[in-house]
Amino acid sequence: MRLPFLLTCTAWLCLGLTQALAQTPTTVVDLITPLQSSARLDPLDRFAQALTTDRGYLGAVTLVARNGQIIDWRAYGSRDLAKTSPMKIDSIFRIYSMTKTIVSVAVLMLVEDGKLDLDDPIANYMPEFSAMQVFIGGTADAPELRPARQPIRVRHLLTHTSGFATSGAAGDEAVKLFNRVDLHASPTLKDYASAVAKLPLAMEPGERFSYDGVGLELLSRLIELRSGMPMDRFLQQRLLTPLAMTDTGFGVEATKRDRIADMVTTDAQGRLLLDSSRAAQQPGIWLNPYPSGAGGLYSTAGDYLRFCQMLLNGGSLDGRTILTPRSVDLMQTNQLGSAAIPTGALRPGDGFGFGGYVVMKSVPGSRPGSVGQFGWLGAGSTYYTIDRQEKLVALLLMQHLPQNLPKDPPKVGSEFFGLVYQSLVK
User: Do 209 and 160 touch, CB atoms closer than 8 A?
Assistant: First the structure.
């Protein structure tokens, strides 16, 4: 099997997950266990090669683990726009919204510590949210408001049902009012929370699922308040260090920045170009001035696999317990209850747990995989899934920001996971 930029083994190499990820690999090898045949992996290999040749992506890393063993881990294409450096399996990616799952785990750790309760009103800890108003009419310049009938609770932040006016129809006046505030320029999470508290809600808390990043930024502030330390330090001490996620953080130290994959986009003609954001122009810097729980982390395939394997194991890895199995079950159970789910907000058959989608039933158009499958994605074309029935973790990491233009590369998450499942043997 020919693997671009990959040194293949002359014989199958079977490595346990803990051994394989104990340290960053220095030699790129094809890790295939007897649980999988190389022939069944060929379609996945051809698909990934095509991503970086005729489908418009610059580079990619794919990783599949099953039964606690890595069965496939490869790099394709280039790390940089100039195509002078090949992508490697230890390349570093901006994982954007895959950060949300990690921060959701951090919140549940505080729940287990007795520092938070899922049904706590957030005003218990951030009094500025004690008198929230709901937009009911008028304009952004002259809004008509009424008091919210119930408080925003911790679980609303985790499930994107807080009611913030972050999305709506074109010309929505509540959204206009919300967008007048540049929340991402907030110097601290405290400032971010104070700014949000002054804005009216678009709907009652718990009424409707509306995916956004505001809830996770407020949860990040709650982590600071209830742990007594900055959010990034809490993550480092309680989660990243115990899981040996040595390449994950809100910034990348100078000695590692040559491993960061370029964040690219396309223009109207379909040409690749470096994205204009600061994080793309200055790889390794913090994506926001504050530690963004909504999307601020950098990570690698190997690091994120360790996090996913911990969840797949029921909350533990290498003898370290991060969460109890009960909390992991809560994460991977639909938590939306009676909240309305707008058409197109989730895939058919999906619900939402804490930090990711949950496959509730198999219906036409649903994603490949088992009922109970859990996962999420990042805006920069990163994807992961955890399937407890199949004891499977699969990751596809790229760095491409779509512009919703006709010549954007196609979205490929479902195709990738479909090929992963087709490759499985019992």
Answer: yes
Q: What is the pLDDT of residue 20?
A: 41
Q: How far apart are CA 391 and CA 85, in angstroms?
A: 34
Q: CA-based Rg of the chain, rounded to a whole angstrom?
A: 21
Mean pLDDT across the chain: 90
| Structure tokens that stand for 136 in this block | 């009911």
Spatial strand order in the sheet of 69-77:
69-77, 59-66, 392-397, 382-387, 374-378, 357-359, 350-352
d(CA 213, CA 201): 15
- 302, 28 contact by CB (below 8 A): no
Q: Compute the distance between CA of residue 61 and CA of residue 87 in angstroms, rounded to an integer.
A: 7
Pull the structure tokens for residue 148.
């919210």
Cα angle 167, 168, 169 (rounded to 5 degrees) comes to 145
The C-alpha atoms of residue 277 and residue 210 are separated, in whole angstroms, by: 25
Measured CA to CA, the distance from residue 345 to residue 209 in angstroms comes to: 8
* Strand-pair category, 350-352 with 272-274: unpaired
- Tell me the whole-structure pTM to 2 decimals: 0.92
The string of pLDDT tens digits covering residues 263-308 is: 999 999 989 999 999 999 999 999 999 999 999 999 999 999 999 9
How many C-beta neighbours within 10 Å does residue 134 have? 20
